[in-house]
Design brief:
Glucose Oxidase, domain 3, alpha+beta, FAD/NAD(P)-binding domain, 20% strand, 16 helices, 618 residues, disordered N terminus, seven-stranded mixed β-sheet, six-stranded antiparallel β-sheet, 29 strands
């Protein structure tokens, strides 16, 4: 035997859905590592051993903290200027080649290339989980969350960005940001799309999965039968259903590391990339100017200096943490921790996310299901590793290819409900999945072959906060997402569930023998299955994140007391410092946040480049 199971989850059953490998695929992860070998970056590093041997105290023009969805874009654009020396710091390791397999994305959520946290309880959500704590996670590798997510490429709605501009953020309306979406995009399905909304010459591949399974097609057809049009969610009309475009091509993930950093990393001598390098403090002088970073690597402390700017792109969980560790944040909180206050700002506040929940299942007939034997799974993995362009099941993401957006009230100007799906094969395994926060409860009826549609509120009113941990400020932050803190957030979910259950009356459900499993979930067994009260119980008990955390370094005009950065993403009160990532969103967009984060990288770095070009001319 040339592979060993990785002891991260329960053993795989004898028959399992191939497209759900991501739910239990740890047992095969080592096999894939064997087949793929080391990461591409490490292979190149061995070929060019002289690269990146320099250790700080070095001086750079720009330091970018975080090589995630936005940070990779920022580092790429800055290093286009050969006269600018750019340092890109990433707290995690190189992106492993195994991460390019779409069918294994869920497996990565609790691996060593992810930050794994739990939410602080609020008594209104996550009630079925131990101590009322939901799972919270994000990417910790080159590419950040773009290297471990479901790859969905959805930008949000026009009204989201026009709303940002209406709040006083000049330059962020839909017409302002559309060119920056298109700049990055290299859309491989452009013949089917409206070219006014898409780009074809950018670095970021966007396409549909090369493999779409039967359950996903069934769910898409069911939504269409119920009146939702087949649509391009990034085009003129978001309401509808689609086989979603993703950041993938030829059956492989295209993370921002793959798209923006790997092609230039060893060709641009002015770009220095350091992995396993966690920034712990921004250096700020007596004039309140950022001039460098202290970071930890291999148990050692290093200092790097910046002549122009420090740009924080560590994401909505870690950008506020770094700012607060550096003395930028709420005065009272920092003083309690003994951190000298440099600038009193509402860092960590305005935290919000698209809340969803588990516990609804559509049972599939044998004809629709995708179960195969372990031998077939191993064969598919070996075939995948040996192919340049892959069309097999591992090149897709199961039923998550289906995304539907609709309004809970026809009078709304934009959708407020999103339905996305996941495949499962066994409820016992389902509740060991990191996305369900390790609930110890088991669904009373064990069965295989199911799709779990998830209704999410994409316009939430609840707001939470992220704080430093008093016992160890450098350790995991205290994350209070405060799901359902505003109970009106339950209304779109209840109405969305009514619409979802109506899919059972469609011809495609009847013809495939599909049906909603009516056994009540343990925490909600006192309610009538399918009632509004039952669905409220599910939402409060089996709450789950969609990993769309935003808002903790809010963008806003100077008069906004909660604003941390201005419309050009400069931190108020501290020069030479910007935040460029999803944490700047004043209000979350109606859709997945990876594509908007890439756009924020493009829009933000454009401000940086234009400023310094103008500065040098004068």
């Amino acid at each position: 035997m040339f592979w060993q199971p990785v002891n991260l989850t329960a053993e795989c059953p004898a028959n399992s859905p191939l497209t759900a490998c991501s739910s239990f695929g740890f047992i095969y992860l080592n096999l894939l590592v064997q087949l793929f070998g080391d990461s591409l970056d490490n292979k190149i590093q061995r070929r060019y051993p002289s690269i990146e041997l320099e250790h700080d105290n070095q001086v750079y023009d720009f330091i970018v903290v975080g090589a995630g969805s936005a940070g990779c874009v920022v580092a790429n654009r800055l290093s286009e200027n050969p006269n600018w020396k750019v340092l890109l710091l990433e707290a995690g390791p190189e992106q492993p080649d195994v991460s390019v397999v779409p069918g294994l994305s869920t497996v990565l959520a609790s691996s060593n290339i992810a930050w794994s946290y739990t939410a602080e309880p609020n008594g209104k959500s996550c009630l079925a989980y131990p101590e009322g704590r939901c799972f919270i996670g994000s990417g910790k590798t080159m590419g950040g969350s773009s290297s471990i997510n479901s790859m969905v490429y959805i930008r949000g709605n026009k009204v989201d960005y026009d709303g940002w501009a209406a709040l006083g953020n000049k330059g962020w309306s839909y017409n302002d940001v559309l060119p920056f979406f298109k700049k990055s995009e290299n859309n491989k399905n452009i013949e089917e799309l409206d070219k006014r909304y898409h780009g074809v010459s950018g670095e970021q591949y966007v396409s549909r999965f090369t493999y779409i399974d039967k359950p996903s097609i069934m769910m898409t057809k069911a939504f269409m039968e119920r009146g939702l049009p087949l649509t391009d969610h990034n085009g003129p009309q978001q309401v509808g259903v689609s086989q979603t475009q993703v950041t993938a091509y030829s059956g492989k993930r295209d993370s921002t590391n793959t798209a923006f950093i790997q092609p230039i990393r060893y060709r641009r001598e002015n770009l220095i990339v350091k992995v396993n390098a966690e920034a712990v403090k921004i250096l700020i002088d007596e004039n309140k100017r950022a001039y460098g970073i202290i970071y930890l690597s291999n148990g050692q402390k290093f200092t790097a200096f910046s002549k122009k700017e420090v740009i924080v792109s560590a994401g909505s969980l870690h950008s506020p943490k770094l700012l607060m560790l550096s003395g930028i944040g709420p005065n009272d909180h920092l003083e309690q921790l003994g951190i000298p206050v440099v600038q009193d700002l509402a860092v960590g506040e305005n935290l919000h996310d698209h809340v969803s929940f588990s516990g609804v299942a559509v049972a599939l007939s044998n004809e629709t299901a995708t179960t195969v034997s372990q031998i077939e799974i191993l064969k598919a993995i070996q075939e995948y590793a040996g192919m340049e362009v892959n069309h097999g099941p591992l090149s897709g993401h199961g039923s998550s290819s289906t995304n539907a957006f609709f309004k809970s009230d026809p009078n709304l100007i934009a959708p407020d409900v999103q339905c996305h799906c996941r495949d499962i094969h066994d409820w016992k395994e389902y509740f060991n999945d990191p996305l369900t926060a390790g609930s110890l409860q088991i669904f009373p009826k064990s069965f295989y072959n199911a799709v779990t549609p998830r209704i999410g509120n994409i316009a939430p009113k609840s707001r939470g906060v992220l704080l430093l941990n008093a016992s160890n400020p450098y350790g995991p932050p205290l994350i209070y997402p405060n799901y359902f803190g505003d109970e009106s957030d339950l209304i779109p979910i209840v109405k969305g569930m009514r619409f979802l259950l109506s899919l059972e009356n469609t011809e495609v459900f009847r013809s495939t023998g599909s049906y909603f499993v009516r056994d009540p979930m343990p925490a909600c067994k006192d309610y009538v299955w399918g009632s509004d009260d039952y669905h409220i119980c599910l939402a409060k008990s089996y709450t789950s994140t969609t990993f769309h955390y935003v808002g903790t370094c809010k963008m806003g005009p100077k008069w906004d007391k909660k604003a941390v950065v201005d419309n050009e993403l400069r931190v108020y009160g501290v020069s030479g410092l910007r935040v460029i990532d999803a944490s700047i969103m004043p209000v979350i967009v109606r859709g997945n946040t990876n594509a908007p984060s890439i756009m924020i990288g493009e829009r933000g770095v454009d401000f940086v480049i234009k400023y310094w070009q103008q500065y040098t001319r004068h």
